[in-house]
Design a protein that fits this description.
Number of strands of chain B: 0
Number of domains of chain A: 1
Strand content of chain A: 15-25%
Radius of gyration of chain B: 24 Å
Distance between the termini of chain B: 81 Å
Structural class of chain B: mainly alpha
Order of helices and strands of chain A: HEEEHEHEHHHEHEHEEHH
Largest sheet of chain A: 6 strands, mixed
Structural class of chain A: alpha/beta
Number of domains of chain B: 1
Helix content of chain B: over 70%
Shape of chain B: globular
CATH class of chain A: Alpha Beta
CATH topology of chain A: Rossmann fold
Strand order of the largest sheet of chain A: 5-6-7-3-8-9
Radius of gyration of chain A: 19 Å
Oligomer: heterodimer
Low-confidence stretches of chain B: none
Strand content of chain B: under 5%
Chain lengths: ~280, ~280
């Protein structure tokens, strides 16, 4: 099991790597002078085209980490390279182009209350493309149908269940065909069946659209179902990295306690897909 | 304890007390300076984003409709009753001097330079400032503002700029409407109800209320509207901590907006009296 990613010279880091799409080195962040550091030197590589999970307890800085990937936060020290590009070095016009590489699915979906499902999903296309309304409608209806949301186009977010909101959030993230999908706690607040459906959706989306998935989670059952690679965060650093099997077999005390306490030894997706 | 060490101990306590009380006095001042700075930075960002692509005319129209048309009923009501009660008071006061025909000019001046702009802005602080803070605050705590940023859309350009521009442009229009309906209410009470002579009321109004007075009121109201919208945006944008945080942001927007309107009224009036003096007729 890889405890920490190897050192990386800036010359190498700024090149596109065939295997590692996101490379993070020495990432540090605190929010106020004198406040404790949330990230205390993160070293991590995330694999292209796979489901990478960042696992950790509440308040460990997982969401802070993910916000550095798209330049929503700037690090105090260290670097994030996405295909060799460090978002902290980009100006506002460049960062806008850079963010189009990403789709982000938020914990509570973050759908715009005043827009319908269709308008929510069309939003990135309206903002960033010159497609006609007919083309936009066709793309949006395709994505919604692919995620089992046909018929929900005219509804407002307040009329949807938690699972449906997450799927609409995913459809919105997918319309610009991003290379990387970021999921922030995608199964929080869902019942076990809805959780399994969201897990299935993450796996199928990764396979169908060939995207790199980065999932932030503390739900062990879900993590073991979907992860190709798991990075365990603890106290602002990466405590362990490896496959699900490697994480289960780790001798790191914190990781072992986290896995044991969750009560999940093995997990997999079973049964037919159904709407959550 | 020796006298010297006792003296030193008392001295250090006094110094500490002075330092702490000094800091306690400075703390609200530093918070005020920080808050003012934050609002000015947001204003500068709004102005920069106003001239950058893409231009979303639809958002400006929506913001103006919310600010202007949405506020119209309350402005019509408050304007009419303000004019009526001001006429009632002024006719009764001038009657003591047998000079009730001056009520037209008194009400006209009061509505044009102070009551119109200030009361319109206070109404807007309660309606528009609170509405903006609640909407943006809810968007902040439900990560909708983060989602905008993640989708490479500037929340300042998308959310704040149209609202601030709408505040700046629509408030003078509403103030003008307030003034007109206020004068209609005043005329009704003074002439129809209290029997003031029609010709004397109108002639005094025309003689004493100069277009410059109306212009002063409208210029002030543009800045009041800007302040109300800006404070609503800033408070909503920085809301934290769930429903309670949104409630606090809304309260701060209403209180901050109202106090700011009253405070900048003095300074704007001072400046405008120097820049736009009314020539004696």
């Amino acid at each position: 099991m890889n405890q920490s990613a190897p050192p990386l010279s800036p010359e190498v880091a700024t090149l596109r790597d065939e295997r590692w799409q996101l490379r993070i080195r020495g990432l540090r962040k605190r929010f106020a002078p004198g406040a404790p550091e949330v990230l205390r030197g993160i070293d991590l590589d995330l694999e292209r085209g796979r489901v990478n999970v960042v696992l950790g307890g509440s308040g460990q800085g997982k969401s802070v980490l993910i916000k550095h990937f798209i330049g929503l936060l700037r690090p105090d020290a260290g670097h994030v390279w996405v295909d060799g590009i460090d978002p902290a070095t980009l100006d506002s016009a460049e960062i806008a182009r850079f963010r189009r590489k990403f789709g982000m699915v938020f914990q509570m979906a973050a759908l715009f209350d005043s827009l319908t499902v269709e308008e929510n999903c069309a939003f990135p296309l309206v903002e960033h493309t010159k497609k006609s309304p007919v083309e936009i409608r066709s793309i949006v209806f395709d994505r919604l149908a692919a995620l089992g949301l046909s018929g929900a186009e005219g509804k407002y977010p307040g009329e949807l269940s938690g699972g449906m909101r997450k799927r609409v959030g995913l459809a919105r993230a997918l319309v610009l065909e991003p290379e990387i999908l970021l999921y922030d706690e995608p199964t929080t607040g869902l019942d076990p069946l809805a959780t399994e459906n969201v897990d299935r959706m993450i796996l199928e989306t990764g396979q169908r659209f060939g995207v790199t998935s980065v999932v932030i989670s503390h739900d062990m059952a879900s993590v073991f179902r979907i992860a190709d690679r798991i990075a365990m965060m603890h106290e602002g650093v990466i405590a362990a990295v490896g496959t699900a099997e490697e994480i289960r077999a780790t001798d790191n005390d914190y990781v072992r306690r986290f896995v044991t306490t969750s009560g999940v030894a093995h997990a997999g997706i079973a049964g037919p897909a159904g709407a959550p | 304890m020796s006298l010297q060490s006792l003296g030193a101990s008392i001295g250090s306590e006094v110094v500490r007390g002075l330092r702490e009380s000094g800091l306690a006095i400075l703390r609200p001042l530093s918070a005020f300076a920080r808050g003012t700075g934050d609002h000015l930075i947001l204003l500068a960002q709004c102005m920069v984003w106003l001239f950058r692509r893409p231009f979303r005319a639809r958002l400006f129209v929506q913001a103006m409709a919310y600010h202007g048309i949405g506020s119209l009923p309350i402005i019509l009501l408050v304007g009419t009753f303000t004019g009526m009660v001001t006429a009632l008071q002024s006719v009764n006061a001038f009657r003591l001097l047998k000079a009730e025909s001056f009520s037209g000019s008194a009400v006209g001046l009061a509505l044009a330079v102070e009551l119109g702009p200030v009361l319109t802005a206070l109404m807007l602080s309660g309606r528009v400032g609170a509405g903006i803070a609640t909407e943006l605050g809810t968007m902040r705590i439900t990560e909708q503002i983060d989602a905008l940023e993640a989708m490479a859309v500037s929340p300042i350009q998308y959310l704040a700029t149209p609202r601030v521009v709408a505040g700046f442009l629509m408030t003078p229009l509403l103030t003008l409407i307030f003034f007109v309906v206020g004068m209609m209410g005043a005329y009704f009470v003074a002439v129809v109800v209290l029997g003031v002579d029609h010709g004397a009321f109108v002639e005094n109004f025309r003689w004493h209320v100069d277009p410059v007075h109306v212009a002063q009121g409208l210029i002030k109201s543009a800045f009041f509207g800007l302040a109300v919208a800006l404070i609503g945006c800033r408070q909503g944008y920085s809301a934290t901590g769930g429903g309670r945080g949104v409630g606090l942001a809304t309260t701060r927007a209403v209180v901050g907006g109202s106090v700011t309107v009253i405070a900048i009224d003095y300074f704007l009036t001072d400046i405008l009296l120097a820049l736009l003096p009314v020539m004696p007729q």
